[in-house]
Amino acid sequence: MGTTRANDRELIGMDRVVVDLLRDGAPRTLDDITGAVPGDCCAQVFLTIDRLSREGLVRIMPGLPGYRVTLADDGRT
Q: Does the reported pTM lie above 0.85?
């Protein structure tokens, strides 16, 4: 697939954590992602995923139970 969009810019902080969790390609819920991040940072995880989806790096899809987050097709390695 060539260079990914996630690799085109330096990912730092929560961006890096979220992208690293999604690299295996398995869809994850917001709760899955928040649970994998140390500390109490639900709002920070939500805002990071919202921003990454607006940038086209992650995709948010409805699912059961709740929304599923994956790397966008052009963001997978």
A: no
